[in-house]
Amino acid sequence: MSMQISERQRVGSLRGIVGQGRGPSGGGAAPGHEPVPMGTGLLGVAALLAAVAMLFLAFTSAYLARRQEAGWLEFTPPWMLWVNTGVLLASSGTLDWARRRIRLGDAAGLRRGIEATAALGLLFVLGQVAAWRQLAADGLLLTTNPHSSFFYVLTAVHGAHLLGGIGALGVVLLRVWQGRYTAQEHAGVTNCATYWHSMDVLWLYLFVLLFWV
Amino acid sequence: MDAVAVHQPDMGRDAHPRESFIRHYIFSLDHKTIGKQYFLTTMFMALVGGAMAMLMRAHLGWPDSGVLNPQQYLQAVTMHGTIMIFFFLTVMLTGGLGNLLIPLMIGARDMAFPFLNMVSYWTFVPGVITILASFFVPGGPAGNGWTAYAPLSAVSAAEGGAGLGQTLWLIALLFVVVSSLFGSLNFLTTILNMRTRGMSMGRLPLTIWGAFVTAVLALLTFPVLMAGLGLLLLDRVAGTSFFEPSNLIIGGTAIAHQGGDALLWQHLFWFFGHPEVYILILTPMGVVSDIISAFSRKPIFGYKAMVLSISAIGFLSFLVWGHHMFVSGMHPLLGAAFMGSTIVIAIPSAIKTFNWCTTLWQGRIHFTSAMLFAIGFVSVFVTGGLSGIFLAIAPVDIYLHDTYFIIAHFHFVMASASLFAILAATYYWFPKFFGRMMNETLGKIHFALTFLGIYGTFYPMHFIGLHSNDRRLYETSAYPFLSHTGPVDVFVSLSAFLLGFAQLFFIFNFFWSLKYGPVAEHNPWHANGLEWTTTTPPPHGNWEGELPTVHRWPYDYSVPGVEHDYIPQTVRAVPVAAGAGGGEA
Fold first, then answer.
1. How confident is residue B525, by pLDDT bands cut at 50, 70 and 90?
2. Is residue B377, in this structure, part of any structural domain at all?
3. Chain A CB contacts of B223 below 8 Å
4. Among residues B172, B192, B212, which one ends one of the domains?
5. B218 touches chain A (CB under 8 A)
6. Dist CA A198 CA A99 (whole Å)
7. Which of these, A157, B73, B101, B181, is most buried using a 10 Å CB contact count?
8. Are B450 and B49 in contact, with CB atoms under 8 Å apart?
9. Please, which residues bridge with residue B519 across strands?
10. Residues B477, B483, B489, B491: is their CA dihedral positive or negative?
11. Per-domain residue ranges for chain A?
């Protein structure tokens, strides 16, 4: 394995990010109250979320442009989607609960919370597949009409990114089992939570875009 | 993600166990090895793209020779553009130069996410394999231009090169996009968070500023391309109608589609496509600034203006994409808006050009191969930039769109300029990474022939373009007004062959010098960047012992009153009495 510079994870400021450079000790916070840069992991997640946001912005503009054409038909959301939305919101809840547990030093609580989140996340993905099958049974396939095309594409791409999030949860879980998180040092959990909550918000956005605006 | 609980002190280079050959060379996590992997792969792809160009010019110079039939010609055109832009320039500049230089120039041991870095390269490789495989499938490679406009690219029933080859093209590009996104994420995080002590953003070399804004652009625009590629792929293989209009009839057969919008593809593609060309020029601009400064023995003129210009170009690049679509039937008011933004974006580029010239002015110039290519960059960039001013004006572009004038423009301002910067960077940093010097005589021959070849190949294209010679044209015999441009085509083709031949000097020089070049000292150019303060080649972990601390910017050349004509960034700032001898710490 190559060198890893580790540093304490703290919420930082923009001034901190573009500040004087942190040096090999990695921490950077001098006794003289120098601003601390944003943790490397969190910065990476933020960059990733920016890219994902642009992807869905592109899909959104394609969707809105296409919607203006003649002959646009929309279908109403299958009830399964409401269930899935609830499941995903619940998974964000369990993940936040897990994060709060580790802040108090409760590694066992962290483990249970992560496991619950991963399970709910998988349940969401399976539920989405079930919703697809429900729609297909009603005759709404990928190529049926533009609205259905976008529905399948947007839910599939969101689902793929959520599966990536479940993968990240798996990595976090491995590290929980190795006992690597403490009340002070759990940057990986926070970063994963940031990504997961963003996927949650993204789903709500897509749900609204596809059916309510 | 960083989740290590223990606050580890920096351990220097000896902290890791010996690795197997596979771990060390194939799946290396060291940015220098990954950078070299990218460098060699993209150099190979440049040769493939160049071969396509040679085929094209063989046909265009001698249309009756039968070297390519119409379908093959369009496929050569498509693959030339695709491979050169995506598989050579973009990835060489980001994955190659970015990986090699960023940690060393900012004083870091490696990238922020070394594992992701390795994944990034090994995601690129399947893209390379896929695009090369597309040459050998039934129907051959894609033939719809590197811009792959719908509906032609969306329909398998279209002309040859629209079958499996086009589908593989889409898949190959998806690999490149994902690889590039991983890379940009890494570079951005590394530059922001991994700078050594004292390395503020205002002390970064311009190479890094270029790489930084490039990473931001790539991160924000490649996803838009990805969306377009994905939707186009679905149109091709799944029967959706994102881009295909209704009532399409090809070869007497009605294509069953439901009213998509071909213009949507253009918007998605060019929203990415325009920032892409700035992705291809910003890092080269930074590299050229550093090289010109070092070999003029003068600080870069107007460092702050250079940084602001790079940032302004990056920002403005999001607002100009419509200038690729002036003939698409857009509302004239929208065209005027894009015309305005396009004219404005010329300004920061002009500022940078002025600053390169003023840096050279009254400098003590060392005409090394690297410097020749850096100055050559300014020349071709100005030539290409000037034709860009013409093309920014919508009514002029409506006349010149899809002619050889456009080809001349982008081959000067993008292809040659980026290529020159890559070559300059290679000559400049080769000693640092490989521990040997490249041969200067061969370098100068390479430069002279390449410079002549570039101008000979692309300058006449301005004129035949003004004369309405369209691009992507298999033969001009259908147009009486082009009946006498044959000799120009021959001249251009011969120049192109010279250009191709000239690269052999470089290839030979590169590989011969790896083994037989004179051993390099650790700072053969007496340059100021942090990368020159470590041993040659740099060890794993980049510096033996502690990381350097930075006290100044990287442009202290020929400082009055100081003994040496350069002061590395690690030298403490000591007040120097004007006119007094010495004073350097």
1. very high
2. no
3. 51-52, 54-55, 58
4. B192
5. no
6. 15
7. B101
8. no
9. B436
10. positive
11. 39-69+77-211
Whether pTM > 0.90 for this model: the answer is: yes
Question: How far apart are alpha carbons A121 and A125 in whole angstroms?
Answer: 6
Is A26 within 8 Å of B10 when comparing Cβ atoms? yes
Q: Is residue B160 part of a domain?
A: yes
What residues form DSSP beta bridges with B181? Answer: none
Confirm or reject contact between B201 and chain A (CB < 8 A).
yes
pLDDT of residue B42: 98
Whole-number Cα distances in Å, B252 to B70, B145, B158, B248, B257: 21, 24, 11, 10, 15
Pairing of the two strands B248-250 and B253-255: antiparallel
pLDDT tens digits, residue range B535-585?
A: 999 999 999 999 999 999 999 999 998 888 999 999 997 665 555 544 444
- In angstroms, rounded to a whole number, what is the distance separating the alpha carbons of residues B515 and B524? 18
Token look-up 């870095």 returns: B117
Closest Cα to residue A92, out of A118, A125, A126, A56?
A118
Q: What is the DSSP letter of B153?
A: G
C-beta separation of B315 from B213 below 8 A: no
Q: State the amino acid at position B151 in one-letter form.
A: P
Quick one: average pLDDT of B346-354? 97
Task: Give dist(CA A151, CA A155) in Å, integer.
Answer: 6
- Rg, Å, chain B Cα set: 24
Residue B57, token pair as written in the block = 């010019």
Q: In this structure, what token pair is assigned to residue B73?
A: 């010609």
Question: Any idea what DSSP says for residue B249?
Answer: E
- Note the pLDDT tens digit of each residue in B463-511: 999 999 999 999 888 899 999 999 999 999 999 999 999 999 999 999 9
- Nearest C-alpha of chain A: how many angstroms from B143? 25
Q: Is A204 helix (H, G, I), strand (E, B) or coil?
A: helix
- B14 at interface of A, judged by CB pairs closer than 8 A: no
CATH code of the domain occupying A39-69+77-211: 1.20.120.80
B147 part of a folded domain: yes
At residue B254, the pLDDT reads 75
> What are the C-alpha distances in Å from B315 to residues B298, B346, B388?
29, 13, 18
Can you give the pLDDT at residue B155? 86
At B566, phi and psi to the nearest 5?
-150, 150
CA A68 to the chain's CA centroid: 30
10 Å CB burial of residue B585 (0-12, 13-18, 19+) is exposed
Lookup: tokens for B71: 């379908």
Question: CB A22 to CB B193 under 8 A?
Answer: yes
Q: Which class for B77: exposed (0-12), middle (13-18), buried (19 or more C-beta within 10 A)?
A: buried
Q: Give A116→chain B minimum CA distance, Å.
A: 21
Task: Examine residue B64 and state whether it is found in any structural domain, yes or no.
Answer: yes
Q: Is the pLDDT of residue B188 over 90?
A: yes
> Which neighbouring-strand residues pair with A101?
none
Domain housing B41: 27-192
Distance between A8 CA and the closest CA of chain B, angstroms: 7
CA angle A43, B103, A15 (to 5 degrees): 40
Least confident of A12-21, B2-11, B136-145: B2-11
Please, what is the Cα angle at B131 between B494 and B88, to 5 degrees? 55
DSSP string for A121-141: HHHHHHHHHHHHHHHHHTT--
- Domain edge (last residue) among B192, B216, B240: B192
Q: In 3D, which of A46, A45, A37, A31 has the Cα closest to residue A14?
A: A37
Of B186, B196, B227, the CB nearest to A62: B227
Looking at residue B403, the DSSP 8-state letter turns out to be B
Count A/B contacts: CB-CB distance under 8 Å.
Answer: 201
Residue B344 pLDDT grade (very low, low, confident, very high; cuts 50, 70, 90):
very high
Domain count, chain B: 2
Q: Is the peptide bond before B537 cis (omega within 30 degrees of 0)?
A: yes
B190 to chain A: nearest residue by CA?
A40
Amino acid in position A11 = V
